[in-house]
Amino acid sequence: HYFLGSNADLPIVGGSILSHDHFQGGHYIFAMAKAEIEKHVTIPGYEDVTAGIVHWPLSVIRIRHKDSERLIELADHILKKWRNYSDPEAFIFEQTNGEPHNTITPIARFKNGKYELDLVLRNNRTSDEHPDGIYHPHAHLHHLKKENIGLIEVMGLAVLPGRLKDELEVVKQALVARDANMLEEAGLEKHLPWLNEMLTRYESVAADEAMSVIETEVGKKFVEILECCGVYKLTDEGLEGIQRFINTINRSL
Questions:
Q1: Which of 173, 217, 183 is nearest to 197 (CA)?
Q2: pLDDT of 93-106, one tens digit each?
């Protein structure tokens, strides 16, 4: 009934402590654990292992088997392949100038009599357009979240900066009053585009409903943040990209 996950081991995608492997676990069912398989796949040599691509904003390969050692063997093989994998068509490169970019965030659980591993493909490349990380919260979302996306958030629980407790109260008041000047007066211009989105979406918001609306809208933005972090998007093109990687696993066995 416990899940167990490990930090990734590279900057940007690895959380706050990279000097050692650390683990997080507990008796909690995250949204990712409830997500279904979008596409089942078979890995030659491991036909006995149930495998598939998870319907989730990030790129997740799920494998299941009654024998935990069998899963470890396959997961280790997938990790080694991903570390050395490039997909120029998707602008994914294993390294630049000797700096490695690919790693995996792993999450384990025991479910319905079988062990289950979710292997989240991560890449920490940066670019001129996205200097904080190509697969990292993009700049238009930094008003809510600029920090790295770690293990807990990968699984669907937003860990938001403490500054938002006060900032969202001002956003709420501005939404009810339909007055963008309130954000400017509070020095919170960074939230203006988001407020304008909500003012367009909602003709009016009652004071007693406003925080519920804000929380819903933050949730939508958090989904966008997770989508930014997916090396392959949950589209036909993205699924084809993950399949290309899986095909390289097939050829190596």
A1: 217
A2: 999 999 999 999 99
